[in-house]
Amino acid sequence: MAQITLKSLAHSYSPSPSGPEDYAIREMEHVWHQGGAYALLGPSGCGKSTLLNIISGLLTPSDGQVLFDDRVVNELAPEERNIAQVFQFPVVYDTMTVYDNLAFPLRNVGTPAAKIRERVAEVADVLDLTSLLKRKARNLTADEKQKVSMGRGLVRDDVSAILFDEPLTVIDPQLKWKLRRKLKEIHERFNITMIYVTHDQLEASTFADKIAVMYEGQVVQFGTPRELFETPAHTFVGYFIGSPGMNLMEVARTEEGVRTGTVDLTLPPALRNAIHRSRSRNIKLGIRPEFVEVLTEPGEASYPVEIDNVQDLGTYRIVSFTFAGMPFRARLGEDQPLPRRHAYVRFPEAWLNLYIDEFRVEVGQ
Amino acid sequence: MNKVYNNRAWFLILPMLMLVAFSAIIPLMTVVNYSVQDVFDANTRFFTGTEWFEVMLNDPALQAALLRQFAFSFTILAIEVPLGIGIALLMPKRGWQASAVLILITLPLLIPWNVVGSIWQLFTRGDIGLMGVGIRELGYAYNITRNPADAWATIILMDVWHWTPLIALLCYSGLRSIPDAYYQAARIDRASKWAVFRYIQLPKLTNVLVIGVLLRFMHSFMIYAEPFVLTGGGPGSSTTFLSQSLTTMAIGQQDLGPSAAFSLIYFLIILLVCWVFYTAIMNSQKDNTTQGGA
């Protein structure tokens, strides 16, 4: 049981890093609270596995500190950190039975046999492994093996956190859902901090209470799934979360207002002022496809567009159109009327996000 | 899909059949042919049935050679397998050291059998050989031409030197193929070094070890050139192994019938031992509580 704090943590694989691009993890501050269910979400190569290995102690960070509660654990080996880790590919001890696999971490620290029996029985029960206890681990299916590797983490009662490194990669889709629910159940029952690394937003949002989105070695946003959706703190979060991702338009200041491409935008004064105050040349406006309004008739602050194509996905439709020379998408319910070719779109101001140098800027209304 | 029945397709396996015929069946049948006849000259021969087989199986000299052969094969296996695993575990994993060690380890494997025999023959000579002289200097009257124990120890040492690298190389490749996650999981599970070896490394080595043991058993069971050059089968017949007895009989004495029968028995023994070993290993890997499948 512990709170995990990352203090000015950074990591570079090169011995003499010269710039930020040499860092797999760029300097960050982060706190994982005791008992939370967290996801670490990001594309391949963003540093999420590196971060996980730093927390578990398989890697020693080049800069900064890792704290468990108030104790600096940088120098502690994984075996001294009371942490469990589940890997992408299930790791089981082939020649042992499922029972022996689950008992292994306990036997290694000399736990009395009676205690081992009790713990293994409990964990096997939670994971539905009871009927398999006598089987050799090598003959299990991938999802059973993955449950065994999770079980080895759960069986120790001194574990302060369980780290999952894309644990469902090799699991069949219909079993993924079952295992995810199992994880959730375990989390509620054992009150253990869990950090779950994945590149799948659905997996992250069904498992975690709070998601840390990583991009190029940085945590660009740490928030609930809803916050990630409604107020993405970074253009990458907008693009990465949601299906399809956020529409982004580059905007430029003009004498009177704001223009994107060849189109002058009608914006609320607060937003326009915020853009005018900024010195940056990298200014973007973002809106989720779900919030773009598509109209058949011109309305207030609407822009005429040409519809390129419509994808019908059953319960909703994705409308692609070109706005100011940029491809845009809108997500419409199946019963909403849809113009054939010429349409008008509106961007409701409540859902317009302003990004200056890729980070979101809060605009007072 | 419609299945087309066309028996002419059988002709497609003809090339393969011919290849196997020339490489295995015809030579083997020649031997079978000799083993059931008593051949006097090109025109005079008698059918003898199983007589040669009975004679061979009851020949005390051959029985002794067979026992020596088993003793030799099992001794070198008992030394080479653990030693090979040990060397593989100690070999560096990466960098130039890994390549250098690999080359050094491989060297003995590249030397032809009879050359190995010659090298050791010179090496162990009491007058000029480094090892022979060295041991004598230490106060032990080392002599492989007089003392059977010395001859045995030297032959075993020679085989271990020549062939342990094979086991080490196989194990090294087996060890390299173990994903890092296994070692990481073991660290997190607080496994001791011994537990890592026993439950991760050794199980992952099973397959290469089966190949290694089978190869080494077959090789050592057929060993000929090395002891022949080193000791000539002596002192007395203390290091005369099966293949040397066979050669003496077939080439030296031109006893075609008995040596043919003996060859077949020899072949069947190797086949039997390999089969038993392989089946035993494969059975031990099976899950006893599951029926079929998996």
Automatic annotation (TrEMBL), chain A:
GO terms for molecular function: ATP binding. Keywords: ATP-binding, Cell membrane, Membrane, Nucleotide-binding, Transport. Residues 4-241 form the ABC transporter domain. SMART domains: AAA. The keyword Cell membrane applies. InterPro entries: AAA+_ATPase, ABC_transporter-like_ATP-bd, ABC_transpr_FbpC, ABC_transpr_MalK/UgpC-like, Mo/tungstate-bd_C_term_dom, OB_MalK-like, P-loop_NTPase. This is ABC transporter ATP-binding protein.
From TrEMBL, chain B:
InterPro entries: MetI-like, MetI-like_sf, Sugar_ABC_transporter. GO terms for cellular component: plasma membrane. Keywords: Membrane, Transmembrane, Transmembrane helix, Transport. It is found in: Cell membrane. It comes from Billgrantia desiderata. Its main location: membrane. SUPFAM superfamilies: MetI-like (SSF161098). The chain crosses the membrane at residues 12-36, 70-90, 102-123, 151-175, 196-218, 260-281. The lineage of its organism: Bacteria, Pseudomonadati, Pseudomonadota, Gammaproteobacteria, Oceanospirillales. This is Sugar ABC transporter permease. Belongs to the binding-protein-dependent transport system permease family. It is a multi-pass membrane protein. One of its GO terms (biological process) is transmembrane transport. PANTHER family: GLUCOSE IMPORT SYSTEM PERMEASE PROTEIN GLCT, TREHALOSE TRANSPORT SYSTEM PERMEASE PROTEIN SUGA. Residues 66-277 form the ABC transmembrane type-1 domain.
